[in-house]
């Protein structure tokens, strides 16, 4: 029994003022109180235990939550980092796509530059010979002949200057292509632009694969005057469409189908409020399964290392930025036609 209760019980037992019956009743009350006290103590102890366990659990939970918060923070940081990395990689891919199309252009450009360069070399050689002749005539005192030769040299130098400027223009065009677009719109003769890129694409492919050949069929609508576009951007679109068309023809050619003659036709046409540029090939066409994805970035059916799959997705973005549309019609085994439509009142 509890010591205090025991003391009371002892006092009651020793009391002479209480009779036995009262004593027994009080002692029994005390015993009951002792029992209740014991139960309460036990309950209290149990509650204490629960409290302690809960506190420990709570502490553990807090610790766990803190760990989770840190883990989330860490993965957030990692996500941020990989997002940055992805953005950088995307930028680099776009740049390398540009460089790849520059590679395609280089061979064509080399071919284009070779012509004016030949002129410059030949005319400067001839002019040197003419001047040597002139020196002789000066010694002979034949002033008439000297004058005639001088006239010839002047004409030659004009030609050298003319072809030098041509080469300069080609190199400038090349630099413009490799530079990131300034985004500035210029009044551009679309027929000249398309023709230029068509020739560059064709010679570029021929330089890479001498066996490649395709008939070129061009219809330029002369009623189109200039239109307000970012020339390098539209040039890249045209280059990609033409390269894709040649590639499709070349793939079909490899199948050695009897009587197959690859043809790529390029047309420009003036309509009411817009002009259209069509690039059509008689390659293998695009199966529906592929057609659904051709404008997706990085989608390509070319072997690894041969295409980035950015050509059409970038083309789509460029045409959209010009307020135009790009449509495709294709028939399996027969060929494909891409039609770009650009508004003529593109003033902004
Ligand atoms: N004229 C076409 N005929 C058949 N398939 C085509 C034609 N044009 C595009 N495609 C299909 O669309 C895909 C995507 O074309 P896109 O120009 O975007 O990339 P790519 O030509 O594969 O690579 P890149 O242009 O970067 O060199 C091609 O891989 C090809 O499967
Ligand atoms: Mg392409």
Task: Write up what this structure looks like.
The protein is an alpha+beta fold. It has a domain at 183-348: Histidine kinase-like ATPase, C-terminal domain (Heat Shock Protein 90, 2-Layer Sandwich). It has 7 helices and 7 strands. It has helices at 3-14, 20-140, 143-178, 190-208, 231-253, 288-291, 311-321; strands at 186-189, 215-219, 226-229, 263-270, 274-281, 325-331, 335-343. It is elongated, with a radius of gyration of 45 Å. 21% of the residues are buried. Magnesium ion is lined by residues 240, 243-244, 307, 311.
Keywords:
binds adenosine-5'-triphosphate, Heat Shock Protein 90, single chain, two-stranded antiparallel ribbon, binds magnesium ion, alpha+beta, elongated, 7 helices, five-stranded mixed β-sheet, 348 residues
Structural class: alpha+beta
Bound small molecules, which ones?
adenosine-5'-triphosphate, magnesium ion
The CATH architecture of the domain at 183-348 comes to 2-Layer Sandwich
| CATH homology-level superfamily of the domain at 183-348 | Histidine kinase-like ATPase, C-terminal domain
Number of strands: 7
Q: Could you tell me the CATH topology label of the domain at 183-348.
A: Heat Shock Protein 90
Strand order of the largest sheet: 2-4-5-7-6
Count of helical segments?
7
What is the element string, with H for helices and E for strands?
HHHEHEEHEEHHEE
What is the 3D form?
Answer: elongated
Summary?
By secondary structure, the chain is of the alpha+beta class.
Lay out the secondary structure:
Blueprint lengths: L2 H12 L5 H121 L2 H36 L7 E4 H19 L6 E5 L6 E4 L1 H23 L9 E8 L3 E8 L6 H4 L19 H11 L3 E7 L3 E9 L5
Parallel strand pairs: 2-4
Antiparallel strand pairs: 1-3, 4-5, 5-7, 6-7
Helix pairs in contact: 1-2, 2-3, 2-4, 4-5, 5-7
The site of adenosine-5'-triphosphate has 22 residues, from helix 5 and helix 7.
């Amino acid at each position: 029994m509890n010591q205090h209760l025991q003391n009371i019980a002892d006092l009651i037992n020793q009391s002479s003022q209480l009779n036995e019956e009262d004593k027994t009743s009080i002692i029994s009350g005390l015993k009951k109180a002792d029992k209740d006290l014991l139960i309460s103590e036990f309950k209290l102890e149990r509650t204490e235990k629960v409290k302690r366990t809960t506190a420990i659990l709570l502490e553990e939970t807090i610790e766990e939550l803190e760990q989770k918060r840190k883990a989330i923070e860490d993965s957030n940081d990692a996500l941020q980092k990989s997002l940055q990395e992805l953005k950088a990689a995307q930028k680099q891919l776009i740049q390398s796509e540009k460089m790849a199309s520059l590679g395609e252009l280089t061979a064509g450009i080399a071919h284009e530059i070779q012509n004016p360069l030949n002129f410059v070399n030949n005319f400067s050689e001839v002019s040197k010979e003419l001047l040597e002749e002139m020196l002789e005539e000066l010694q002979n005192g034949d002033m008439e002949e000297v004058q005639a030769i001088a006239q010839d040299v002047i004409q030659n130098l004009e030609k050298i200057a003319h072809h030098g400027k041509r080469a300069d223009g080609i190199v400038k065009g090349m630099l413009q292509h490799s530079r990131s677009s300034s985004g500035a719109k210029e009044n551009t003769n679309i027929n000249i632009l398309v023709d230029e890129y068509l020739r560059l694409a064709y010679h570029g492919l021929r330089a890479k694969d001498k066996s490649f050949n395709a008939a070129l069929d061009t219809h330029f609508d002369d009623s189109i005057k200039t239109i307000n576009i970012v020339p390098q951007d539209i040039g890249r679109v045209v280059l990609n469409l033409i390269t894709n068309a040649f590639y499709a023809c070349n793939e079909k050619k490899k199948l050695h189908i009897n009587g197959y003659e690859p043809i790529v036709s390029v047309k420009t046409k003036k309509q009411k409020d817009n002009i259209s540029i069509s690039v059509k090939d008689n390659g293998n066409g695009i199966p529906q399964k592929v057609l659904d994805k051709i404008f997706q970035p990085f989608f390509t059916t070319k072997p690894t290392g041969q295409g980035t799959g950015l050509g059409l997705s970038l083309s789509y973005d460029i045409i959209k930025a010009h307020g135009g549309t790009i449509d495709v019609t294709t028939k399996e085994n027969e060929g494909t036609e891409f039609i770009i439509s650009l508004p003529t009142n593109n003033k902004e």
